[in-house]
Specification:
With 207 residues, the protein is α/β, with parallel strands linked by helices. Helix content is 52%, strand content 10%.
Length: 207
């Protein structure tokens, strides 16, 4: 059973389908790319989004198993809360909201992310704002035998942003990320929302 889609979103998807031109995405990848373009009105994301092998399948399986979802900031959490509630009801945690004070030399988001990784190493991690949080996550990955089910890396900005995504790309964790400076909370939320729709529809087909 497909999730209901608002007529305006349906019309927007039709416009994107007409304008995107030729591409090499498979159906699942395109569903994610299309939702990001819908959220940003920026077709350049079709050239910037990267998928590691098996990342989408890993994300779908984890969502269906109600694996906790850890976001870096509250805006990403709010951007996915509605879809989480309509589908699998995964626990949804914003790292920045888990701590009241930052560790010395670290941001509050980075501190909260490190704490979440210690508690939920196998979670789905969605980074849409803080490159420091993504760098902290990448630094923690070699330390524990349990790896995240998926990391979505889409921080935005100028300082440490590209570097954080490059650090993610050097890891073997299942990942979806946006190359370069572009990204942001709406982009990260769009990627996860698209994955949740895919997980729901996949369950409806196979369940």
């Amino acid at each position: 059973m497909n999730l209901p889609i608002h007529p305006i979103m349906e019309q927007s998807f039709a416009v994107i389908d007409r304008e995107i031109g030729k591409h090499n995405f498979n159906l699942a990848e395109y569903a994610i790319v299309r939702r990001v373009i819908h959220s940003t009105a920026d077709f350049e994301f079709a050239q910037l989004i990267r998928f590691s092998e098996g990342a989408i399948a890993s994300g779908i399986k984890a969502i269906q198993q109600q694996t906790p979802i850890i976001t870096d900031v509250g805006m990403v959490k709010q951007g996915v809360a509605g879809m989480v509630a309509k589908t699998f009801g995964n626990s949804l945690i914003a790292a920045v909201e888990q701590v009241s004070e930052a560790l010395p030399g670290k941001t509050r988001t980075e501190t909260g992310l490190i704490q979440c990784f210690e508690q939920y190493p196998g979670a789905i991690y969605v980074i849409g704002n803080a490159p420091t949080a993504l760098l902290a996550l990448c630094a923690q990955l070699p330390c524990l035998p349990i790896q995240p089910a998926l990391v979505i890396g889409a921080p935005v900005g100028f300082i440490s942003v590209s570097e954080s995504k490059e650090a993610l790309a050097q890891t073997s964790v299942p990942q979806i990320y946006v190359e370069g400076r572009k990204g942001g909370s709406p982009v990260a939320a769009a990627i996860l929302n698209a994955l949740m729709v895919l997980a729901w529809e996949n369950q409806a087909v196979t369940g």
